[in-house]
Structures are given as C-alpha cells and as structure tokens.
Specification:
mainly alpha; two-stranded antiparallel sheet; single chain; 149 residues; binds zinc ion; 3% strand
C-alpha cells in the first residue's frame, strides 16, 4: 500500500488507523450505516469505492489549488499596500521614539519648561498606548509580508 492508496481510502473511510486486511474495503456506506467490506481491488478499496475516492480526491485537489491561487492573488495585490503601511508605521515609531533633546545636559538638572512639557508628552499614557499599537501593527505587517520583506 502506498501513501496515495491511503489518501484515497481516507476520502471514503471514516477512519483508517485501525484497518485490517480481513475487513476488506473500508469505505463507509452511510445509507446502510456500515463498512463496505468487499474485496480490495485497488489499494484498500473495492472498484466502486476506488472510483468514488478518485473523484473526491481530484475535487479536493482542485479546491485546494483554487484556494491557493486566490490566496496568492490576494497576497500579490496586498503586498504593496502592506509595505506602504509598514513604512508609515515605522516612520511614526521613529518620530515618537526621538529623544526630545539629544543633548543630555539639557534634560538633566534644571530643565527648561518647554523641554519638560515635551518630555511629559512623550511619557503620556496616550503616547505609550500609541507606541504599543504601532509596534503591534509593525509585527503584524512584518509577518504578513514575510519572506518577501
Ligand atoms: Zn467498497
């Protein structure tokens, strides 16, 4: 039995982990509420259920492919938007993260009123919350852009 045989059996059987050869075809017949049990002709399955399984498997592959194509198209369309948004987020982080005055002497000791006011603004809850939100957005966008970044 191959992996393909198992994939096919999985399309029609309820479970395959406890299958034994003497059970025969493991396909579940819902209307009869029992296992098929006919002799295995193709892999694990009887001919009839093999045909059903192949059809379901091909449908499954087609659905997966369609989903993948839609996802890729969406991603391709979104990438420039994500990159532009990330640049904006990073610029705002950079701007908010600037020390008020680069000269440390100016912020130590007696501080000019205008500098103290700017420092207070930097430490405000609103700014802290905004920075947390910006970093969360940065993380999210970086993850979305992923390997293409
Ligand atoms: Zn069968």
């Amino acid at each position: 039995m191959t992996a393909k045989d198992l994939s096919l059996a999985d399309q029609v059987a309820l479970r395959m982990d406890n299958w034994k050869p003497e059970q025969g075809c493991p396909a579940w017949i819902e209307s009869a509420d029992r296992q098929c049990g006919k002799p295995n002709k193709e892999g694990y399955l009887c001919m009839r259920h093999h045909t059903v399984a192949v059809r379901r498997y091909e449908d499954h592959l087609l659905r997966e492919r369609t989903k993948r194509e839609l996802r890729e198209a969406w991603r391709e369309k979104s990438l420039p938007l994500w990159r532009a948004e990330l640049a904006k987020v990073d610029a705002e982080i950079e701007r908010r993260d600037q020390p008020v005055v680069r000269d440390r002497a100016a912020v130590g000791g007696v501080v000019h009123r205008s500098i103290r006011k700017k420092q207070a603004a930097l430490m405000s809850d609103t700014n802290v919350r905004r920075m947390a939100a910006l970093w969360a957005k940065h993380e999210e966008l970086t993850k979305l852009i992923g390997a293409d970044a």
